[in-house]
Amino acid sequence: MVVSVPFLEPRIPEDKDFLLLKEMVLERENWTFDYDKAGIKIWSRVSQHASIKMVKVWSNFPTVSSRNLYNTILDPNYRPHWDPHLQLGCQIGYLNYNSVISYYAVSCPPPLRTRDFVLQTSWLDNGSELFVINHSVCHKDYPPKKGFIRGISFFTGYLIKCTNPQGIVPAWIVNKCTQIFAPRFVKQLEKAAFGYQEWKSQNNPTLYPWLFPKQRQLPVISLADCRPSHEEQESSFFKDLANANIKLDWWSREPQVRFAPTKKCSSELLVSNGQENKISTITDRASNDVHSAPHTVKLPKEVSKKSGSKHT
């Protein structure tokens, strides 16, 4: 018998998926305002149909263009230079021109163990807003493995707008993520985006497969390869998810917002996270018609010093 967990299945992204992210970013009802320091604001909320704590972050990056921030998030070769938590990352393949499946292993703050993820990441540029969303999926070549706890991302997203010029996590760690790690990540991302253009000018400066699909070098993924493995289906965590029949309230509604009219660009970052059992892990990756093997990038021992260190 195949155990079904619908929200862990890959799917071709539609406009409504990105609009739901925008709606969640804009809404204030049922969100608790937790943090407001140094230009970073954080809200949190517990899902109505599952014990999942969602975290929403807002910040303004006055020294960074929206395009540089978007490319920083999506460029797979730049990620190891600015994210110290990334231990291993590789792309598996594309679902379509704006959606890729990747594998990541990331370190976590003590006492949490190292986690790994198989994620579908999708992106959209509608002219005035830039979207990146992801959620966990399965893939036959990347089953859970020893030494890692398989993390589950139910829904993670970035909404970037131009401005005028798995395991149970203790409650105290959840609070720490909201008050410390989320603000730290946002500042880290701003610093990385500020240094992106200089780095990119020296590293495949014309390669942007997330913007130009003809530059892709990965295979197209078959949905048949994304079914849960026998090991995954037999895991207690996977069975609990299936038996609980979790209904995610942000997937069960139609978005009420619509795309904004196009305008030209500093940037405003709005992040909405709904992660398995409260841990917030923002991950992504993209790279560039046909490789049979995934492209792997290992984390350098030190974070590159070309990442705009004067602007934190």
Automatic annotation (TrEMBL):
<dbReference type="GO" id="GO:0008289">
    <property type="term" value="F:lipid binding"/>
</dbReference>
<feature type="domain" description="START">
    <location>
        <begin position="20"/>
        <end position="161"/>
    </location>
</feature>
<dbReference type="InterPro" id="IPR051213">
    <property type="entry name" value="START_lipid_transfer"/>
</dbReference>
<dbReference type="InterPro" id="IPR002913">
    <property type="entry name" value="START_lipid-bd_dom"/>
</dbReference>
<dbReference type="InterPro" id="IPR023393">
    <property type="entry name" value="START-like_dom_sf"/>
</dbReference>
<dbReference type="GO" id="GO:0005737">
    <property type="term" value="C:cytoplasm"/>
</dbReference>
<dbReference type="Pfam" id="PF01852">
    <property type="entry name" value="START"/>
</dbReference>
<protein>
    <recommendedName>
        <fullName>START domain-containing protein</fullName>
    </recommendedName>
</protein>
